[in-house]
Amino acid sequence: MATLFRIAPLLAAPFLLLSCASSSRGPSGGLPRDEWGHRAGPEGFQTVIIDAGHGGKDPGAVSRHTGQREKDLTLDLAKKLQSELRGSFRTVLLRGDDTFVDLDDRVDFANRYGNAVLVSLHFNSGPSHIRGPETYYWRVDSHGLAVRCQRAMASASPAESANRGLVRRRLRLTRNPDIPCVLLEGGYLSHSSESRLIADSSYRRTLARAIAGAIRDQSKHGDAGTGPLPAPLWEPPSRPTDAPE
Length: 245
Ligand SMILES: [Zn+2]
What we know:
6-stranded mixed beta sheet, single chain
């Protein structure tokens, strides 16, 4: 018993820090952390956590048309997005170089922040005829941001038919963070002309600018103009054993 009493204050310290973070609200509003996200989307948030998908030993998709690796393209897009958001938000890069970060560690990292959103950046791969951006979300409070990001990426794409729309899917980076979170697929590396487009740095800049505009609009207007909120889903956090991500 005596040992337990001695350990207790040590254990309590990190939880105190966490509870401060979880109830933090910025001066102009924003949402504190919430494990389910069954609420309206955020307005007035000040922090954007930018996650460059894959990295290190995990290259992600590799284009057979250009040889480019998803992990390099997402890192470049993340840095471009960070520079586009500079001045409007505090931005945090979840990885700033070519390192591997486990998905659960990415979630833990995002959960340190309140009054923030998480944007995870990826590029897609699939059958060779499919192209266009696609946005994944799961939480109700992420729907508005997902709609805005998808619209912005589709309008940045020069192909009229290039819009794969929204997909509501329970992934570790769409279900498990305690803050609004979306996973963006900026186009298909498996499509010959789209992969060449994505290989062009100026197109990635256009894409970053479009996504930054969507994030800014969400912070300014909340969910206004993004359509009705989806129904809450009561499903447990996503586990590594669920499905490939
Ligand atoms: Zn990916």
